[in-house]
C-alpha cells in the first residue's frame, strides 16, 4: 500500500507549550488528509479533515483554535496542538487519501501515529 | 445511536482455529464502504479488507474474508487458520457517501483478539 509517515513518533512536552505533528504522503499526492485521536484502549475519533490549499473541516466538539491544521502542499499536513495540557495527551494518527501518483486512488492510508504526552 | 457496533470487547482463540469478529453498522446512505483494520501494540493501523455497499461478492484477502450481510447491516471479519501474530486490536470502520475517500472513517470500539498457543 501507499506510505504515510508521521513525525515525531513520540513527544513529551510541558504543559502550556505547543507541539507540531507532521503527516507526509511519501509516494503519492493527497489533497485530503484526516486527523484522528485515540485515547488508551479506545477507538479512533475523527478530529478534522485537512484540505490542501483551504481551511480544515473540524468535527463537532473539536476546538479549531486548539488544534491548528495546515495543509500547505499535496504531500504534507501539520497538526499543531497549541498550549497543550495533560488532557491533550493521546495518540494522534493521520491518514491520507490517494489523489494521484499511484493507485489505489481515493483510498486512505494511515500513518504510524504520534504519541503525545503532556506533563 | 452508534454507527459502528463491535459487541466483542475481547476474544481468546486457540491457534489455527478460525475466528469471526462481529461488526454491525448503521447508515441511511445507499453508498458506503466498510473496512477492517488491525492495530498491534505498536499502534499502526494496518488495512485488512474493504467491502463496498454495491459489491455483490464478499471481499477476501488471503486469510481474511468479510461476511457481508447487507439486509442485516453486518460486516463480520473472518480470519481463517489463526496465528499467534494475529493477536491485536481489530477495528471495523465505515465511510459513508458515494466514495472518493472524501470523508473520514467512523470506527467501532474494537475487539481485542488474543490467539493462544
* β-sheet strand percentage of chain A: over 45%
Query: Roughly how many Å is the radius of gyration of chain B?
Result: 14 Å
Largest interface: A-B, 24 and 21 residues
Report the structural category of chain B: mainly beta
Poorly predicted segments of chain B: none
The low-pLDDT segments of chain A are none
Helical amount of chain A: under 10%
What does this structure look like?
The complex is a heterodimer of chains A (119) and B (117). In chain A, strand 7 and strand 8 form a beta hairpin. In chain A, the strands form two sheets. In chain A, strands 2, 4, 5, 6, 9, 10 and 11 form a seven-stranded mixed sheet that branches. Chain A has a four-stranded antiparallel sheet with strand order 1-3-8-7, with no helix packed on it. Chain A has strands at 4-7, 10-13, 19-25, 32-38, 44-51, 57-58, 67-73, 76-81, 90-97, 108-110, 114-118. Chain A is an all-beta fold. Chain B has 117 residues and is mainly beta. Chain B contains no helices and twelve strands. Chain B has strands at residues 4-5, 10-14, 19-21, 24-25, 32-39, 46-52, 60-61, 64-69, 74-79, 88-96, 106-107, 111-116. In chain B, a hairpin with a 2-residue loop joins strand 7 and strand 8. Chain B is globular. The termini of chain B are far apart. The mean pLDDT of chain B is 92. The A-B interface holds A 1, 32, 34, 36, 42-46, 49, 59, 91, 93, 95, 97-98, 106-110, 112-113, 115 and B 37, 42-45, 47, 50, 91, 93, 99-110.
List keywords for this structure.
heterodimer, A: 119 residues, mainly beta, 7-stranded mixed sheet, 4-stranded antiparallel sheet, 51% strand, B: 117 residues, 12 strands
Amino acid at each position: 500500500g501507499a506510505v504515510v509517515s508521521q513525525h515525531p513518533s513520540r513527544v513529551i512536552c510541558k504543559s502550556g507549550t505547543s507541539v507540531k505533528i507532521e503527516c507526509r504522503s511519501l509516494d503519492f499526492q493527497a489533497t485530503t488528509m484526516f486527523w484522528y485521536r485515540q485515547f488508551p484502549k479506545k477507538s479512533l475519533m475523527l478530529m478534522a479533515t485537512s484540505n490542501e490549499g483551504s481551511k480544515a473541516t473540524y468535527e463537532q466538539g473539536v476546538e479549531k483554535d486548539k488544534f491548528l491544521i495546515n495543509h500547505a502542499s499535496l504531500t504534507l499536513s501539520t497538526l499543531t496542538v497549541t498550549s497543550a495540557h495533560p488532557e491533550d495527551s493521546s495518540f494522534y494518527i493521520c491518514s491520507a487519501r490517494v489523489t494521484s501518483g499511484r493507485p489505489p486512488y481515493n483510498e486512505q492510508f494511515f500513518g504510524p501515529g504520534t504519541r503525545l504526552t503532556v506533563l | 445511536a452508534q454507527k459502528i457496533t463491535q459487541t466483542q470487547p475481547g476474544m481468546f482463540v486457540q491457534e489455527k482455529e478460525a475466528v469471526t469478529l462481529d461488526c454491525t453498522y448503521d447508515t441511511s446512505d445507499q453508498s458506503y464502504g466498510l473496512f477492517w483494520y488491525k492495530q498491534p501494540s505498536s499502534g499502526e493501523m494496518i488495512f485488512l479488507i474493504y467491502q463496498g455497499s454495491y459489491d455483490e461478492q464478499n471481499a477476501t484477502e488471503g486469510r481474511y474474508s468479510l461476511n457481508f450481510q447487507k439486509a442485516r447491516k453486518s460486516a463480520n471479519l473472518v480470519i481463517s487458520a489463526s496465528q499467534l501474530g494475529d493477536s491485536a486490536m481489530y477495528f471495523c470502520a465505515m465511510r459513508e457517501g458515494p466514495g472518493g475517500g472524501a470523508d473520514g472513517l467512523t470506527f467501532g470500539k474494537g475487539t481485542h483478539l488474543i490467539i493462544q498457543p
